[in-house]
Specification:
The complex is a heterodimer of chains A (about 375) and B (about 425).
Chain A (H helix, E strand, L loop, with lengths): L3 H23 L2 H28 L9 H6 L12 H17 L2 H24 L6 H38 L2 H24 L5 H25 L12 H4 L5 H10 L12 E5 L5 E5 L6 E2 L1 E3 L6 E7 L8 E3 L15 E3 L8 E6 L13 E3 L7 E5 L2
Parallel strand pairs in A: 1-5, 4-10
Antiparallel strand pairs in A: 1-2, 2-3, 5-8, 6-7, 6-9, 9-10
Helix pairs in contact in A: 1-2, 4-5, 5-6, 6-8
Chain B lengths: L2 H33 L15 H34 L15 H29 L7 E8 L2 E6 L2 E3 L2 E3 L3 E4 L1 E5 L4 E7 L4 E4 L6 E4 L5 E5 L5 E6 L12 E7 L1 H12 L10 H12 L41 E2 L4 E2 L3 H8 L3 H9 L9 H9 L1 H4 L26 H11 L4
Parallel strand pairs in B: 1-7, 6-12
Antiparallel strand pairs in B: 1-2, 2-5, 3-4, 7-10, 8-9, 11-12, 13-14
Classes of the chains: A alpha+beta (about 375), B alpha+beta (about 425).
């Protein structure tokens, strides 16, 4: 009743099931649960394979059908040598080396091993599909080309883009736009020529593209080795700037050069308005018709407020982030953050996170606008 | 071969096979039908208890019926075709390619149905997003694996809140009031859902999503996180409790009342010391003082990934703890509260957890070993990926007498 193959897998199913029961009973906690689930999964897989073996009677051919036995695909010799065992060996060795050296080696080796295993398996399968090698090769292509072509194209695109990015990072900012235009113009011109010269030979076109690609990759490698051009760093907004204790020059540099990036993916807890007569109030998101002078801020949560300046002068919104005692008990200085100076009619984002209760600070959490007296919005962090 | 015998044999088997399938279909159908009759289903989406949920219900019912009718028609036709034209060894019928009239009709008809459905859908979407009639705002913050509620100062319906209120697990709102929840997250994406009061809204770190809430009458309405958020996602539950205005005023007053220290020398006073030494690193009890009179301030940002832990100032005014997963009330008291008439609900709820109704077993088990009750990433030897911080409450290895003291202390946090 049971075939040889199904006996093997039924045995494995029984073993996995018993192992799952023993493991589940002896190891507690989440590790026990996960292990048991894993072993049950293995048992299910073995049972499934056993079922397939039973259903197909191990794929055996009747001993009486001698012709079938001779002509069956499994009886055919392999069509040629395969490079995939070599690649698999390389991947395996790389896994071992990567495990003790660099994670990137491990990851690349894993990909090589995976690719080699897939290719090898499909090749092995396709060579025995039928007794016709041509048909078998067609099967291999039909199975693997949908994977190979996109993957190779992706690898080619990555190499191309990476080389181009190294070049652009290496050259000067001003030269960059010229290089970008020239390369773009060359590619466009080449496209026109190829389109116009219909009689151009296949090999000529391939040769030109290959030379161009090699040149790009070569210059890209050289640029990568050379390194990237120096990048001018933006000054950071400091408490001194926000509290007005920094020098005029520092404040001006912040206002003209500091990062103006806005967390566009975020939305605001409140909109803070400075009116033309320099009154400060907040509109809480969701209840826009009440002017608030205190805002509830959830502790340890990154929140954003939008500052709207309708006063005549450029103004910045400053958040006072409290004053805390150091570990040795000495009083620290007040921490602050702020927007850059905002022109009349302008807006700016202020992002902050308060991790301690207001009771922990000796000075209150609040929003103020330097230069505007007697106006503040209290921040409540219970 | 004797064909007549085969025929008799086949006919003999058929009724048995048919009976088998008929029984299976009958049991499946009856099972599905009975499942729809469950009366103890507090998260039934077809039982709206507030204006917003009713809008969704008004929209979804006709859509459901139309979809059901379409499904029945399609399944019926497919089933009929499968049965009528099943392979009986007959010749393959004449093959044709397409039927333009039928295809045009089958394109236009669904388009008309979808266009018709889109009108009330879009209207409902805008109505559910309305904010101009907000009467109360509450910040709702999700973290692994519980919800925090911050009540801002100002008006909440007809009740004025003078000082901020922070609570966890149970959202308490005044009935018949348009409450706007401002939902966000401190760690991963969660989703807030109280089916009886409105649809779902994702809680996304760095973003603030709004959700209208309104309950028609006092009661307790349950929900759960509906975005997979890690190991204890299934144990991240929540409830909304609606109270009359006067009861809500009483609840607010209770939340803002001054801290009452346990009587010196009592078991609870010993529990206060245990709490200060162990629990207050993460859990805040408002106005709790050190021996020198300075406030005891929690600093969960140092220990917990999300940077917060539930405020326990009024733990015994809630009905459940640990992500609203374990009952603080005994089963009898819980059933009495959950089945209370709306007129009686507020008074029962505001009594909080009395000693007679206290489900001490659950809290005792929790204090003994929290991760055993609710899986969390709290193995002290496996915190490298979080910079040494926990995702939940670790086992504090409290001794039995410390647990007794803590329970006596926490029972007074009402």
């Amino acid at each position: 009743m049971f075939t040889t193959g199904s006996k093997l897998f039924l045995g494995a199913t029984a073993l996995s099931t018993v192992s799952a029961i023993v493991f589940g009973a002896s190891v507690g906690g989440s590790a026990g649960m996960l292990g048991t689930i894993g072993l049950i999964s293995v048992a299910v897989v073995f049972a499934f394979i056993a079922g397939i073996n039973l259903f197909t009677r191990d794929g055996n051919v009747s001993a009486t059908e001698a012709d079938v036995e001779r002509n069956t695909a499994a009886a055919q010799a392999g069509v040629g040598r395969s490079m995939w065992p070599l690649a698999a060996a390389l991947g395996s060795a790389g896994l071992v080396v990567g495990a003790v050296s660099k994670p990137v080696v491990f990851k690349v080796s894993f990909v090589i091993l995976l690719a080699a295993a897939a290719e090898w398996m499909v090749q092995g399968f396709s060579e025995r599909v039928s007794a016709d090698p041509k048909y078998n090769e067609g099967i291999r292509k039909r199975l693997l080309h949908p994977l190979e072509f996109p993957l190779l194209a992706a690898v080619g695109a990555i190499v191309f883009i990476y080389s181009f990015s190294r070049i652009m990072l290496n050259i000067d900012k001003d030269a960059g736009r010229w290089v970008f235009m020239v390369i773009g113009a060359i590619i466009t011109a080449a496209g026109f020529i190829f389109a116009a010269k219909r009689g151009m030979g296949k090999s000529t076109a391939a040769g030109i593209i290959t030379v161009g690609a090699l040149a790009l990759v070569g210059v890209g490698i050289a640029s990568a080795v050379s390194g990237q051009h120096p990048i001018e760093e933006h000054p950071e907004i400091t408490s001194a700037v926000c509290l007005g204790t920094a020098s005029e020059a520092q404040i001006e540099e912040i206002d003209t050069k500091a990062s103006q990036s806005v967390a566009a993916k975020s939305n605001v807890l409140a909109n803070v308005h400075l009116t033309s007569d320099e009154q400060l109030y907040a509109l809480n998101t969701g209840i826009g018709y009440v002017q608030y002078h205190e805002i509830m801020v959830p502790q340890s949560n990154t929140v954003h407020v939008m500052f709207h300046n309708d006063s005549a002068e450029p103004r910045r919104l400053t958040i006072h982030l409290g004053t805390f005692k150091a570990a040795d008990g000495t009083e620290g200085s007040e921490e602050a953050d702020c927007t850059t100076a905002v022109e009349k009619g302008g807006t700016a984002f202020l992002t902050f996170k308060i991790t301690k209760s207001q009771l922990a600070s000796t000075t209150p959490y609040r929003l103020t606008v330097p230069g505007v007296e007697d106006q503040e919005i209290k921040l409540l962090v219970p | 071969m004797d064909r007549s015998k085969e025929t008799v044999s086949t006919l003999g088997r058929m009724p048995s096979t048919r009976r088998h399938w008929s029984r299976a279909a009958l049991f499946t159908g009856v099972g599905l039908l009975l499942a729809g009759c469950a009366n103890n289903a507090p998260q039934d989406i077809f039982e709206p208890k507030g204006e917003n949920a009713k809008k969704i219900d008004t929209l979804q019912r006709p859509v459901f019926y139309i979809a059901g009718i379409v499904a029945l028609i399609v399944i019926g036709i497919v089933g009929y075709a499968m049965w009528k034209f099943r392979d009986r060894g007959q010749d393959i019928p004449e093959q044709s390619h397409g039927n333009p009239k039928l295809e045009i009709a089958l394109t236009i008809l669904p388009a008309i149905i979808l266009a018709a459905i889109s009108v009330p859908t879009v209207i409902s979407v805008f109505e559910l997003d309305k904010k101009t009639d907000t009467e109360c705002i509450i910040n709702v913050t999700g973290q692994q694996w519980w919800w925090e509620y911050d009540y801002a100062t100002g008006q909440c319906g007809d009740v004025k809140i003078d000082k901020p209120i922070v609570t966890a697990g149970e959202l308490v709102i005044p009935e018949k009031t348009n409450v706007l929840l401002r939902i966000t997250s401190r760690d991963v994406i969660h989703s807030y859902w109280i089916p009886a009061l409105n649809g779902k809204r994702d809680a996304v770190p760095g973003r603030l999503h709004t959700l209208r809430m309104q309950a028609d009458q006092p009661g307790i309405y349950t929900g759960q996180c509906t975005e997979f958020c890690g190991l204890s996602h299934a144990r991240m539950r929540q409830a909304a409790v609606a109270l009359t205005t006067s009861d809500f005023q009483q609840w607010v007053d209770n939340q803002l009342k001054e801290y009452v220290a346990p009587e010196a020398g009592s078991l609870a006073a010993e529990g206060e010391a245990v709490f200060t030494a162990n629990c207050s690193k993460c859990h805040q009890v408002n106005d709790l003082k050190n021996a020198d009179g300075s406030p005891v301030l929690s600093d969960p940002d140092l220990y917990v990934v999300s940077g917060v832990a539930p405020n326990l100032s009024h733990l015994m005014n809630r009905t459940a703890f640990a992500g609203w997963t374990f009952d603080l009330l005994t089963e009898e008291c819980r059933t009495a509260l959950w089945t209370a008439k709306p007129a009686d609900f507020g008074a029962m709820y505001l009594k909080g957890v009395t000693p007679e109704c206290f489900n001490e077993v659950a809290l005792r088990d929790w204090l003994r070993n929290p991760p055993a009750m609710k899986p969390m990433f709290v193995d002290p030897n496996n915190l490298s990926s979080t910079g040494g911080k926990y995702r939940g409450m670790p086992n504090l290895n409290l001794k039995p007498d410390q647990i007794d003291q803590l329970i006596a202390y926490l029972l007074g946090r009402n």
